[in-house]
Amino acid sequence: MSNKLDKRYGLLTAIAMVIGIVIGSGVFFKAEKVLKATGGNLLLGIIAWIIGGIIMISCAYTFAVMATKYEYVNGVVDYAEAAIGKTYGYYVGWFMAVIYYPTLTSVLAWVSARYTCVLFGFSITGGECMTIACLYLIGAFAINSLSPVLAGKFQVSTTIIKLIPLLLMAVVGTIVGLSNGMTVTNFTTVVENVDTFSGLFTAVVATAFAYEGWIIATSINAELKDAKKNLPRALIGGTFAIMLVYILYYIGLAGAVSNEVMMAGGEAGAKLAFETVFSSIGGSLIFVFVIISCLGTLNGLMLGCTRGLYSIAVRGMGPKQEVFKQVDNITNMPTNSSVIGLLFCGIWLLFFYGANLTDSWFGFFSFDSSELPIVTIYAMYIPIFIMMIKKEKELSIFKRFIMPIVSICGCIFMMIAACFAHRIAVVAYLIVFAVVMIIGAVFANKVYVGSKMKN
């Protein structure tokens, strides 16, 4: 086995990763949550989508500037290490390997299974759903571990497929809504009177989850051809396209069904909207594309998940470095890192089920693992942006000061918004987070002590 990954991905794959990872399950069921949070006020909901999009684009732009300077193994870990130091980079990598990647990946496996169950009429919380979720999780692991090139092609294909229902609803739904007056009615009717500030705050939390995941595209930095040019292009172009598609889709929904119906639609809300516009058969067919969309997101998340421990092992840090930094000569994949990544996904899938889908197994420590990792990932961006302002003196005022400051403000906003939405559950999550990071510190200290002994 070797320790080096080949450069095999082009600009198209990188853009597909940015769009494909972000666009997936979130936009389909978070649209309903945004409507509920704003009391059915479509204009306020659009403002929430714009705020969330601006925060995403500003952070992506700032990282894109750093991408023109640094090119190593795992994007955000590289940036953390270059900006602050090897120790901070290690802790960011450890967090992403043990918490961030596997929590989001496991939840996406369940979401993909949930929409499959909705299509076939199965229970979304029963054994059928969890069985399908496990199969999807293993399938995503297999395609990424055995054939990374095929996984990249699957990412491009599913990105194109997943845009079909979004663009169809954006265009056809808007045309239908304007012709029958539904769009105008929904824009001029507020279902419930809610506090504007509180409603907007909660709605932005929902968009934060729908927008989350673009940073995972940086995990293939070292495998991307001409990464210093192509990664910034992918981050900026991809995130802007995502915001535009989300807003147009949101407007399209307003032409499909009334705000009251959409708010009460539950997990079948998106399916109901598609069936209203495209008939029962056409709506079900397009809903199949929604499931493929979720699977594409799962594939992209798993791609990042399989490289979790590899990204810190190649830096000479973390547990069993010689084991986790090995790359298979045939598949050119960090096989050992992939296996442990799948194990973490399985553990977090079990936790998600026990904490959110049945009578709580964990009491106080039950929290939503689909959103709360965002609290820490945005917090971890802030020191990177601060050090960028301090160190990158050759950059222009716009790149060195304006955009990083805007990004910092966005990160702080997201942290406050997440705490506002989840309240006491944030405390439970932060305790688990602290325990995981302490375990990571034990491995870091062992490496440090070992280095001193060698010296």
Fraction of residues in helix: over 70%
CATH topology: Amino acid/polyamine transporter I
How many strand units?
0
Ends apart, CA distance between termini: 28 Å
List keywords for this structure.
mainly alpha; membrane; 0% strand; 18 helices; globular; transmembrane; APC family permease; disordered C terminus
Question: Your description of this structure?
Answer:
This protein is 77% helix and 0% strand. The chain has a single domain, classed as Amino acid/polyamine transporter I (Up-down Bundle), CATH 1.20.1740. The model is unreliable at 447-455 (pLDDT under 50). It starts with 10 loop residues before the first helix and ends with a helix. It has 455 residues and is mainly alpha-helical. α3 packs across α9, α5 (86-120) packs across α15 and α9 crosses α17 (397-422). The protein is built from 18 helices and no strands. Its main location: membrane. Keywords: Membrane, Transmembrane, Transmembrane helix. It is found in: Membrane.
